[in-house]
Amino acid sequence: MNPFVSYTNETIITIERHILEEQKYHPEATGILTALLYDIALSGKYIASRTCRAGLMDILGATDNFNIQGEQVMKLDELADDTIYRLNDHTGRLAVMASEEHSDIMPIPEKFESGKYVLLFDPLDGSSNIDYNAPIGTIFAIYRRLSLEGPGTLEDCLQPGKDMVVGGYILYGSSTMLVYSSGNGTHGFTLDPSIGEFLLSHPNIQIPKKPKYYSVNQGYSMYWSEGVNKFTDYLQGKDGQMKSLSLRYIGSLVADFHRTLLSGGIFYYPTDKKDPKRPTGKLRLLYEANPLAFVMKQAGGYASDGHQSILEIMPQQLHQRVPLYIGNRELVEKAEEYIRNFDDKE
Length: 346
Ligand code: P6P
Prior knowledge:
Shape: globular
Number of helices: 8
Bound molecules: 6-O-phosphono-alpha-D-fructofuranose
Largest sheet: 8 strands, mixed
Strand content: 15-25%
Number of strands: 15
Mean pLDDT: 91
Radius of gyration: 20 Å
Distance between the termini: 69 Å
CATH architecture of the largest domain: 2-Layer Sandwich
CATH superfamily of the largest domain: Fructose-1,6-Bisphosphatase, subunit A, domain 1
CATH topology of the largest domain: Fructose-1,6-Bisphosphatase, Chain A, domain 1
C-alpha cells in the first residue's frame, strides 16, 4: 500500500511535492527556489529536534553575548542562526543573507558560488520564552537579488515586502508547523516526527472573517497614544460599536501571529513611549513584519504600521523597527482610523 495515499485515497502532500507544484506559478524558477525552500524546511526540522529537548541538553539559558538589538542571545538563538546559515552558505542559491543576530549582512563565503536569491531571517523569535517552554519560531523572507553579479549587497536586502518571492515561518509549539506563501495562497505544513516530513495540513489558509481575539501587551497601555488606547477600548466593546473580543497574548510573535491567522482578529505591537531608544516600536521590518504581512495578505488579511501597508514601506536600515497591526483587514483599518483621528492631529 502506497504510504503516501491514505485509505481515503486522498494524496498526502509533502512540502517537497507542494513546493514543486508551486513552482508552476514561477516560470522563472529553475528549481533553485524549490531547493532553497527545502533547505529552510530542513533547517526547521533540525532546530525543532533541538528545541524539543532543550531542557535535556545544556543549551538552555543565555550566552554572555548580546545581539545588535541589545538583547542577550540565548544559546538556542545561536544554534538556530548557525544552522540556517550553514545549511545555505554553500548551495550557490543565495547571494547574501541577513539575520536578526548579526549587525551586518552575512556574505556567502568566497569559496562558494553566489546565487540569485536573498534570505532574511529571524532565526529564533520569542527566544525569551525558551526557558518557559512557550512556543518560539523562525521567520524568513526570500527575495531575488537586485545586484547583477558578485557578492550580494545591503541594497539586495533592503527591498520592500511587496517584492518578496517567498515569506513564511516555522512554529516550534505543541507541533512543529511550517507556514509559507510564494504568492499563490498561504499553506501550512505539520511535521510528522515519525517520518521527518512536513505534511500539508492547512491548505489555502484564509483568516476567518469573524474575528475572535485581539493580541497586544496591555501592560504597556500607559505608554500608548490616545488613538491606540481608544482603538483598544473599541476592541473591548467599551464604546458599544462591537462585541468585545477576548485577549490572548503569549509574547512570542510567531505564536501570536499564527493564532490570529487561524482564529481571526488582530495582533498589534504599537509604538510605545516606554523606551525612547525604540520610538518606532519593537518589531523589525525586514525579517518579522514583512514576511508575516506577506503571509497574511495571501490569507486575505492586511498589515499596517498604523498609517500604510507594511509591504509598501521602503526599508532604510537592516534592523529598522516598525509598529505592527496585522490581522482582519477591517480591524487593521479601524486601528489606522483611530490613529488618524486622535494621534495625527496632535
Ligand atoms: P513584549 C520576543 O522577544 C518579541 O520580539 C516577539 O516575539 C514578541 O511579539 C515581542 O517581542 C514581545 O514583546 O514587549 O510584549 O515582551
